[in-house]
Amino acid sequence: MRMHETVRKTNKNLLSDVYDTPRWKKIFGPPTQTLERIGVQLCVDGMTIHKRKELRSSKPMHYVILSLPPRVRYKSTYMLIHMLVPHHLKGQAVKKYYDHAAVEMNELHRDGVCGVKVKLYGVSLDTPGRRELLQMQSVTAFYPCPHCLHSAEPGLRGQVFGGFRRYLPIVSPWRRKCFFYKGQKYEFRNVEDRGPAPLRTDESVRMMIGMSRRDRRPFMGHKGEPLLSKWVGADWESSMCDKMHDLKCFVEMLLKGLVGRGSHGMYKAWNRDVNHRNDCRAFGIFKDFQDGGNPPWRLSKQAIRLLDMRVRNIWWPHYLERLCRDHHSFWTHSEPMYKSKHKSYILFVLLPTCLHGFVAAVHNAILMIVHALRQIDGYILSIFESMARGVRPGSHVADKTKVAQWGHTLVRGLVLLEGSFPVSQLNPALHHLVHYGWQTARGGLLRWVAMWCFERNNKRMKRLVRNTGTRCESSLAGNFLALFSVVF
Question: For residues 357, 361, 364 and 366, what is the CA-based torsion angle, rounded to 10 degrees?
Answer without folding.
Answer: -100
